[in-house]
Protein: Major intrinsic protein
Amino acid sequence: MPRRRIILGRRNEAVHPDTVRATVAEFIATAIFVFAAEGSVLSLVKMEMDTWTESGLLVVAVAHGLAFTVAVAGAMNLSGGHVNPAVTLSLMITGRISVVRAVLYWVAQLLGAVAASLLLRLSTADMRPVGLWVAPGFGVWNAVLLEIILTFGLVYTFFAIMVDLRNALSSIEPLAVGFIIAANILVGGVFDGAGMNPARVFGPALIGWQWRHHWVYWLGPFIGSALAALIYEFLVMPFEVIPHTLNPPLIPPLIPEDY
Structure:
């Protein structure tokens, strides 16, 4: 089959019921993930524990992995379960979603992260979200490279598990993606928090007003995501393999011109 290319989207796609439902699903799923992820960090702060200790790092990694698993599982039948602007980018540049849908997902993911961070602050008696930043003594460009590598692993796993029809994990696909999130945090958590997800970093940064090194968590994940998507699409995915479509479809059909 011919390789996919970037598609802009058709007229009225933004207001199609499938698109609206998928966008709402991304908003709620991202809010669920960020609330649990950032909340695990605040819980450690409340207990006067450091997230950069062995036990603290393990708690945060498990919380992120479990929350991402649930968020993806809850949204995958509507939106594909991206829950991450970097994942959305990877599917856009390989033509699996349109630019219109990608933009809507990005807005929903960022707003979901902001809503979760705000609710977290309100429900914890005004505790400011901690957010992520590069650890002292660790260079920002080292952090960018680390984010590229970690996000590459996440998006490559997403393609292999959630997109490629040849995988054999079926109903436990979200759990496999959650595992790579947790594993990556165990690797990179002490260096830069292992963001891998611009929305997860943006929400706490806005509500906690902590923008230190924020650009790192956009540049690194977007580069890593694009590399993983292009490598899997053009080097790993055979021409004859039909991408995983899930049921209902991962990418709802494009809107007819006369819709």
